[in-house]
């Protein structure tokens, strides 16, 4: 059975809190159980069990989701991303890039996956915050991705939804421009919370999709199954953790399997809703940065 934990803030307070989200979608404040950070729960499995039992036993005051501002489920973890892990992504990259097409083709089949740095934790935006499109890019898309939450010992502890905002024209012009296409203000969103307790087998059954609304109308929607991913989570994590330690843990995006048709680009004020069936919905509005 999976359990949901969130980071949140209440009006008038600057400090963030950690909560357990109940089946009825209300939030139990975990400060009373002595929990201050999500990282404590990620690092110590016994603590996670203790806190879950504490929340289930006895009655605790509950806040509604309307009473809280959800924050991204990241504290001091770096955010990394895998790429070209779904056939749809390989096809889209090969189309957008005339001279680099073979690089995408090769990496899809190679033993070593594409892995790139995506964001420092303090730059990640959370649910209902703005995601950015670069002012010097003309072809921008959101990328809905399952994100793995990994502790400092390299253990997969939870899942969330990641939006790997990307500038396709910059990426397509030259592979060496990838960091500029991927890393800029508001290019990384995470949320709405962290789900723990699901196995990889269960996660691979989840549906992952995105819908984009413009002026009240849906202008794109698409979805796939997490199981369409070519590599196992262990494979992706294994390469990320080779010769590299993460003292605070790390979040790893697993790549996108949903890419809008080539004529589509995001615009300011678009609403992006990403949904993973086993997790929830991550919603953000687009702004130009
Ligand atoms: O190589 C470009 C990035 C690929 C990516 O972000 C993805 O497949 O999700
Ligand atoms: Mg991506």
Structure, described:
By secondary structure, the chain is α+β, with helices and mostly antiparallel strands. The chain folds into two domains: 3-71; 78-288, Fumarylacetoacetase-like, C-terminal domain (Fumarylacetoacetate hydrolase, domain 2), CATH 3.90.850. It is 21% helix and 36% strand. It has helices spanning 38-43, 45-56, 87-96, 101-109, 168-173, 178-182, 200-203, 233-240, and strands at residues 3-10, 17-21, 26-29, 62-64, 68-71, 78-83, 114-119, 130-133, 140-141, 144-150, 156-164, 166-167, 188-196, 207-214, 217-225, 250-253, 271-276, 280-288. The strands form three sheets. Strands 1, 2, 3, 4, 5, 6, 7, 10, 11, 13 and 16 form an eleven-stranded mixed sheet that branches. A five-stranded mixed sheet has the order 8-18-17-14-15, with no helix packed on it. A two-stranded antiparallel ribbon has the order 9-12. β17 and β18 (280-288) form a beta hairpin. α3 (87-96) packs antiparallel against α4. It is globular. The N and C termini lie far apart (40 Å). The model has no long low-confidence stretch (mean pLDDT 97). Bound molecules: 2,5-dioxopentanoic acid (DO4) and magnesium ion. 2,5-dioxopentanoic acid binds next to β6 and α3. The site of 2,5-dioxopentanoic acid (DO4) has 12 residues, from β6 and α3.
């Amino acid at each position: 059975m999976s359990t949901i934990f969130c980071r949140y803030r209440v009006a008038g307070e600057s400090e963030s809190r950690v909560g357990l989200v109940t089946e009825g979608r209300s939030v139990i404040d975990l400060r009373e159980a002595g929990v201050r950070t999500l990282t404590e729960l990620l690092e110590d499995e016994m603590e996670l069990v203790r806190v879950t039992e504490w929340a289930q036993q006895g009655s605790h005051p509950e806040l509604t989701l309307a009473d809280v501002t959800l924050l991204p489920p990241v504290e001091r973890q770096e955010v990394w991303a895998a790429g070209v892990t779904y056939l749809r992504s390989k096809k889209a990259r090969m189309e957008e890039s005339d001279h680099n097409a073979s690089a995408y083709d090769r990496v899809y089949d190679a033993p070593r996956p594409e892995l790139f740095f995506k964001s420092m934790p303090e730059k990640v935006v959370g649910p209902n915050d703005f995601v950015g499109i670069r002012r010097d890019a003309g072809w921008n898309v959101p990328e809905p991705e399952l994100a793995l939450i990994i502790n400092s010992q390299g253990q997969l502890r939870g899942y969330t939804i990641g939006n790997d905002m990307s500038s396709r024209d910059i990426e397509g012009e030259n592979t060496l421009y990838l960091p500029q296409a991927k890393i800029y203000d508001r290019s990384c969103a995470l949320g709405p919370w962290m789900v723990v307790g699901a196995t990889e087998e269960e996660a691979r059954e989840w549906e992952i999709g995105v819908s984009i609304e413009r002026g009240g109308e849906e202008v794109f929607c698409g979805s796939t199954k997490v199981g369409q991913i070519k590599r196992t989570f262990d494979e992706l994590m294994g390469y990320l953790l080779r010769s590299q330690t993460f003292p605070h843990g790390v979040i790893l995006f697993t790549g996108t399997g949903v890419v809008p048709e080539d004529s589509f680009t995001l615009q300011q004020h678009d609403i992006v809703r990403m949904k993973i069936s086993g997790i929830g919905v991550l919603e953000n509005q687009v702004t130009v940065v």
